[in-house]
Structures are given as C-alpha cells and as structure tokens.
Amino acid sequence: MNRVSFTAKTITYEIIKDTHFVCISPASGKLGYCILSRVIQGISDDEGVYLEFFHELASGYDLVSILEMHRDKIIVSFKKPFVKITGIDIALDIDDASFEKMIDGINNIFQDKTDQVVNYTTISLTEPRVRGPVD
C-alpha cells in the first residue's frame, strides 16, 4: 500500500454553515491538498470527521486512525486502506500564525476524538483555545 505526500504552503480554517473546515494546500500550481471538516459539536447530523485529499472522490467520514501533529509535518494514518492509500504525509512550510490557526481548527474538529490525535507540539489540544477562526 502507498502513502501520499505533499508540502503545505497555505492553511485556512473557517466555519461555514455550522461546519469547521481546515484546508491544507500546497503552493499554487502544485498537486495535493487535504481537507478536514466536521459540523460544530452538538449539531444532530454529525457524521464524524470528514477527510478529503487530492480529489473529492478520495473522501469519506471516519477514515482517520491517527493524526500526528508536529511543527514541521502532519502524519495522517487511515483506519484501513482507502483508494489504495494508507495515509498522508504533509510537510508544513507555514508561519506560526497559520500553524496556530490549523491547531485551533483540528482541535475543534477532533474535539471528542482526542485519542485520534497525537500532539508533538508545544500547543495543547486538550481544550479549545478559540471557538472559531482567527485572522
């Protein structure tokens, strides 16, 4: 089985229509992206953490087994192979403000699934630092 990888240059975190979205993107013109999303906790149609990578056909709910957070990379492993892929390795080439925004988004998305996130950073994921995106 294979893992896919890319280098992230842009991170966005938004709340759109009661849903948290973290989009991790490469430099303009480069291949790859990863979107993590989930409805705000407490909304009845919560299907879990949604993951999409490289194309909307490569997407689904509750695919993530472990998400490892490092300051210079994110390693996402799947519960089982998905479209012949076992995970995504994302090198982070982003500034500290973008990194903290991403942490806030991932914290909100995985709020009740903290056992799926391994944090190797100095930023705590155990409690929300903010309730929404910060510009």
Structure report:
- By secondary structure, this protein is mainly β.
- The protein has one domain (2-119).
- 10% of the residues lie in helices and 48% in strands.
- It is built from one helix and ten strands.
- The strands form two sheets. It has a five-stranded mixed β-sheet with strand order 1-9-8-7-10, with no helix packed on it.
- Residues 125-135 have low confidence and may be disordered.
Characteristic key phrases:
five-stranded antiparallel β-sheet, five-stranded mixed β-sheet, disordered C terminus, 135 residues, mainly beta, single chain
Q: What is the distance, rounded to the nearest whole angstrom, between the alpha carbons of the first and last residues? A: 39 Å
Spans of at least 5 consecutive residues whose pLDDT stays below 50 are: 125-135
String of helices and strands? EEEEEEEEEHE
Please tally the β strands and state the result.
10
Q: Which structural class matches the secondary elements?
A: mainly beta
